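Technical annex, item 7. During the second reporting period the consortium partners agreed on a shared format for inverse folding records so that results from different sites could be compared directly. Each record opens with the tokenized structure and is followed by the designed sequence. A conforming record, contributed by the partner at site C, is shown below for reference.
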């Protein structure tokens, strides 16, 4: 949806909190490739020029509106519109019109602040045009030869990013939705754009029940770094990107132990990925049907839910400032 709009009636939350969001995997955009993306109610393109530089730009040519993500191509370090072959550089400036002597200096593609991290391409969204003052961390597992990176499928879900991440502090749902045999307390740590929740749970393994914990480390409203404490070493980089009002795209980038014989994921790694994918498919029907209560009637011990909501408020603009 183009234009400006406020929250939906079902989920009265600002559609796009200010944050870093994933738009692609680095594998999606090799050198010389144009990759179309839908995010924030807009059509974008990711492209990588011959020098290796990555750019994320608005998709529609300022000339006559062609979508460069549909048939556009890379030439050197520039991207070329498929309609009249106008050329644009990595900052979105028109550099050449093939049938005229000079470019159109006023013709530009909007450009986005971009970051490549942990195998993902992230862009910064701010409804107020603010520059980022933080970045997600680099994972040691992302460069370790002992771990292998695996991309999950992507899920389109009719919900809001905050609704999904609220699960990190809703510890009771682990038992009643995901079937863990028991749960305890949740501990919360806040540090600016980072929110860490450690939820004590009893996990089922091939060795029987194991008392452990699920650690979720949120960075802004687009990234959750999830680990299972007590049964193995692996991390799931869970990313959520707003697409349109009440529609997000979610996916995992898994970093799991490498099997030294096969070079692929270890037995634990396979189980780790399978379990996380199973759990999100259990959550989706609930997210897509629920409403957001601003003042929920909570049970004793559920105060971390309101702690999370207060932390999340720092990323929200007022509804009139949000374009989607």
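Designed sequence (site C submission):
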């Amino acid at each position: 949806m183009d234009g400006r709009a406020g929250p939906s009636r079902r989920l009265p939350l600002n559609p796009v909190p200010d944050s870093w969001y994933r738009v692609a995997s680095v594998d999606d955009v090799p050198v010389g490739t144009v990759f179309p993306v839908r995010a924030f109610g807009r059509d974008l393109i990711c492209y990588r020029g011959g020098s290796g530089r990555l750019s994320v730009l608005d998709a529609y040519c300022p000339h006559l509106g062609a979508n460069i993500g549909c048939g556009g191509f890379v030439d050197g370090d520039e991207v070329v519109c498929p309609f009249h072959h106008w050329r644009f550089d990595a900052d979105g400036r028109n550099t050449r019109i093939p049938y005229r002597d000079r470019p159109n200096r006023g013709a530009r593609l909007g450009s986005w602040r971009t970051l490549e991290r942990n195998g993902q391409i992230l862009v910064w969204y701010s409804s107020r045009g603010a520059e980022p003052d933080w970045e997600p961390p680099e994972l040691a597992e992302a460069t370790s030869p002992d771990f292998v990176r695996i991309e999950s499928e992507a899920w389109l879900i009719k919900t809001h990013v905050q609704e999904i991440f609220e699960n990190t502090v809703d510890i009771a749902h682990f038992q009643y939705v995901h079937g863990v045999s028991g749960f305890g307390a949740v501990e919360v740590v806040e540090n600016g754009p980072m929110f860490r929740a450690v939820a004590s749970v009893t996990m089922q393994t091939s060795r029987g029940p194991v008392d452990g914990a699920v650690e979720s480390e949120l960075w802004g409203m687009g990234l959750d770094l999830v680990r299972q404490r007590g049964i193995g070493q692996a991390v799931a980089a869970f990313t959520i990107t707003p697409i349109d009002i009440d529609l997000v795209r979610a996916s995992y980038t898994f970093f799991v132990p490498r099997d030294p014989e096969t070079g692929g994921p270890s037995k634990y790694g396979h189980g780790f990925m399978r379990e996380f994918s199973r759990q999100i498919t259990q959550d989706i029907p609930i997210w897509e049907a629920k409403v957001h209560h601003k003042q929920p009637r909570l049970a004793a011990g559920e105060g971390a839910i309101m702690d999370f909501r207060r932390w999340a408020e720092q990323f929200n603009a007022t509804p009139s400032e949000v374009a989607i």
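The CA atoms of residues 214 and 228 lie 5 Å apart. The chain has a mean pLDDT of 92. All partners now use this format for quarterly exchanges.
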